């Protein structure tokens, strides 16, 4: 057996995606070890999930740094201390600078609550409802310097129902997130996922479009 993939997860809030990843590891569906959970928010409820799972936590509060570069540098130092192989952004609400994203090129993933490239940025569920579209979803992507702009690995689609509120839609999307994030991380852990010249390579093939979760078999 090879060593489990060494992950550091960055959070700012609830950490329900973190929880889904922890669960997948505990159920042996993901050959990975979360070496640490780092939050920029000292009050992030997600820190409790880490504690409960016995994972070391660290708070690096952006408010205590003079500028973005100083924060990014401290964060990078903390991450690299763990010989980290993959950085997992799980509801991390800080914009990361170009030196930071370049340092982790091809080894940092994010989950975004929309079908990218639609609705980058914040308030995606509200904007999807206002746009009166019928379908919404979530995307896992490699992180590049463009906010929510990196190559997309996998997407899950959910319907928008007539009586949806922001909350009901957000929960439907979150439930999909809990499936696709552990799956994408598993592919990376198994050496099946790489960023090659700005494109996603999975199982040796360059993707021409993101993997559609609904079309994947449950054994992939
Ligand atoms: C999720 O919707 C994720 O897509 C976005 O931030 C939210 C984090 O939720 N990046 P949680 O902290 O994992 O519960």
Order of SSEs, N→C?
EHEHEHEHEHEEHEEEE
Helical content (DSSP H or I, runs of 4+): 25-40%
By CATH reckoning, the class of the largest domain would read: Alpha Beta
The bound ligands are:
5-O-phosphono-beta-D-ribofuranosylamine
CATH architectural type of the largest domain: 3-Layer(aba) Sandwich
* Approximate shape: globular
Separation of termini?
Answer: 19 Å
The helix count comes to 6
Strands of the widest sheet, in order across it, are 3-2-1-4-5-6-7-11
CATH topology of the largest domain: Rossmann fold
Radius of gyration: 17 Å
What low-confidence regions span 5 or more consecutive residues with pLDDT below 50? none
List the helices and strands and how they pair.
Layout: E1 5-11, H1 16-26, E2 32-39, H2 46-52, E3 57-59, H3 68-80, E4 86-89, H4 98-103, E5 108-112, H5 124-130, E6 135-142, E7 152-159, H6 166-189, E8 193-196, E9 199-202, E10 205-206, E11 211-212
Parallel strand pairs: 1-2, 1-4, 2-3, 4-5, 7-11
Antiparallel strand pairs: 5-6, 6-7, 8-9, 9-10
Helix pairs in contact: 1-6
């Amino acid at each position: 057996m090879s060593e489990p993939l060494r992950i550091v997860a960055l959070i700012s809030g609830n950490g329900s995606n973190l929880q889904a990843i922890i669960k997948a590891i505990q159920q042996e569906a993901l050959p990975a070890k979360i070496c640490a959970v780092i939050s920029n928010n000292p009050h992030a409820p997600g820190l409790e999930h880490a504690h409960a799972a016995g994972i070391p936590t660290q708070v690096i509060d952006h408010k205590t740094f003079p500028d973005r570069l100083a924060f990014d540098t401290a964060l990078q130092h903390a991450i690299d201390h763990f010989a980290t192989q993959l950085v997992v952004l799980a509801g991390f609400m800080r914009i990361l600078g170009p030196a930071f994203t370049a340092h982790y090129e091809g080894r940092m993933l994010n989950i975004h609550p929309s079908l990218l490239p639609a609705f980058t940025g914040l308030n995606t569920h509200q904007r999807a409802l206002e746009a009166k579209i019928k379908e919404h979803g979530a995307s896992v992507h490699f992180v590049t310097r463009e906010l929510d702009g990196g190559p997309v690995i996998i997407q899950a689609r959910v319907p928008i129902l007539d009586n949806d509120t922001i909350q009901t839609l957000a929960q439907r999307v979150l439930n999909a997130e809990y499936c696709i994030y552990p799956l994408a991380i598993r592919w990376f852990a198994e050496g099946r996922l790489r960023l090659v010249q700005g494109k996603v390579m999975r199982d040796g093939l360059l993707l021409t479009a993101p993997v559609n979760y609904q079309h994947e078999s449950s054994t992939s």
